[in-house]
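Sanity check

After download, print the first record. It should look like this:
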Amino acid sequence: IDVFLARSLLEKLYLFQYPIRPASMTYDDVTHLSAKIKPKQQKVELEMAIDTLNPNYCRSKGEQIALNVDGTCTDETSTYSSKLMDKQTFCSSQAASNVSRYAAAVYKKGELHLTPLHGILQLRPSFTYLDKADAKHREREAANEGGDSSQDEAEDDVKQITVRFSRPETEQARQRRVQSYEFLQKRQAEEHWVHLHYYGLKDSRSEHERQYLFSQGHGLAENTELIKSPSEYLMMLMPPSVEEENDKPMAPSNVLSMAQLRTLPLADQIKILMKNVKVMPFANLMSLLGSGTDSTAVLRCIQQVAMLVQGNWVVKSDVLYPKDTSSPHSGVPAEVLCRGRDFVMWKFTQDRWVVRKEVAAVTKLCPEDVKDFLEHMSVARINKGWEFMLPYDEDFVKKHPDIVQRQHMLWMGIQAKLEKVYNLLKEHLTPKKQEAQSAHPLLVSGEQRVSMAKAKVKQNYGQLEKEFQKQKAEMKSNDTSAKVDVSNIRIKEEPVSDEEPMDTSTYEGMNNGIVNGLHAEEDSTDSLNGHLPGGCIDRVAQELKAFVSSTFKKQFVLTLSELKRLFNLHLASLPPGHTLFSGISDKMLQDMVLDTGCKQILVPFPPQTAASPDELKVYALWEAGDTYDQHRQVLLEIFSKNYRVRRNVIQNQLSQECGEDLNKQEVDRVLKVSFCCI
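Expected structure tokens:
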């Protein structure tokens, strides 16, 4: 089939897509009453007649719509002059923004004639007549309300007018105004309608225009686009797509393929790798850069973006925090962040362990920023601190002593700056352990740790037995009134069986002056295993009662778990050899809580709760002697019936029991002051 390109209607041919027609409307020559177009916007409005004589047409509904729109008066401005909805307006919208791929085709006598489309418009019903009906309704209501007013009252009152001068519009403000929705709507409304004349399907003018769909001449001059070689024709049908490359999904900013990485210069490769990895041994860096890379060039480049810490390379702070940036957590400028991170890196050159609180105290940065610094180069260990994440690279230190010496000089300069900025004390400058400055730390196997723990337990057991026998002999010879019944004394024995699980921490970490849970000193005469000689029992009870009383006066409601935690913190603040170190059992602590005027609140927690037994035991101070005693007791009664209560229930119950109306703020204050724990 020969294909021809028709140009006569180029940039003039539109395709109209009509909606599904109702039974009372046919798209024929008679129905099109008027048409108008806005060429720039490619917007068309068609007014089409409705067949009111069709049996499917509801005449009463049509009369009601016409009455609502035009009212009872009929003039030139009326939408429906026949007092019947006999026409409907259709408004267009663009079906596709790019119509260059579409054409209208006509097949005739073995020839296919194509005419490119200039636009594809979808026609939809316009309901502007409903807006007109609403406006008529509002006018009638306004006329009815103002009908009784006199002519004098209708005159406009004199009003004061304030004159304001607009400020000069900046270029940025003008661009925002031009791109705004209101401006675009106003600009579209300003374009004038071009009225069209509709010709029917069988009109002679339509027959004449329809001939323009055929190519007027079949010569080569007009159809050069279709006279191509097969390869050129295929290239026209399927051109190389530029959009496919642009539409490829971008990889995340922290993801870079090795193929893309190796196309970059060596310095950029090292910078990107160190910025993403942050800590890396030199051997790993060489393996990532590929075979054939000169190690000397790598060493030259790595020193520009990283510093040597324990034989490993750590990315510099100014690479992670460039100039004119700030912290995402606190908004601190990059200069302060770099200084704080340099302090952390310098601490790791002195020791394998760093304490987070110490870093925060020196740098005065927020906890989130300090945590980011530590996570870059270390791993958190429970009850120990943050340990440098990589082992000491002794191979690199032996192979490149000149690099190590140069990095050491750089760290000396950084240390001098940090001393001036942070006013570092001597304790910050000297490492905690001399062994940390040497090679990699001592590693102890699991079997050795278990053996050391067992040996320590046996040693402690023997020492405790000797101490007990000594005190037993002293108590027999002591004929005072504070004599203690030896038969009631029980020895707290340590497990010595091989099957018992033992603490696997290192022996040095356990040597903290506490033996079997007790502080033991050479000159200390305090008893062991929770039993006191003579009148010391009363003194322990007084100390424990003072702690419990002061604690519940600060926090009126506590769980047993929280109380034990506060008691351990209290013990940590006491000097070695204090009477409270003689061993306070859970039962003794709970009995003392009840003796100080507190009560146990049996909160009905759900059976599926994951809380521990100590967390389910709730104690509360019943009378504190303040103005909130009555309110607090009502709250305790409420929570003894349900563990979760709505605020309005609490407010109503307090109002009923206390005989006063409490607003939301007063209820919040009562909950905060008296009962914030539960």
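If your output differs, re-run the checksum step. Summary of this record's structure: The first helix runs from residue 59 to 70.
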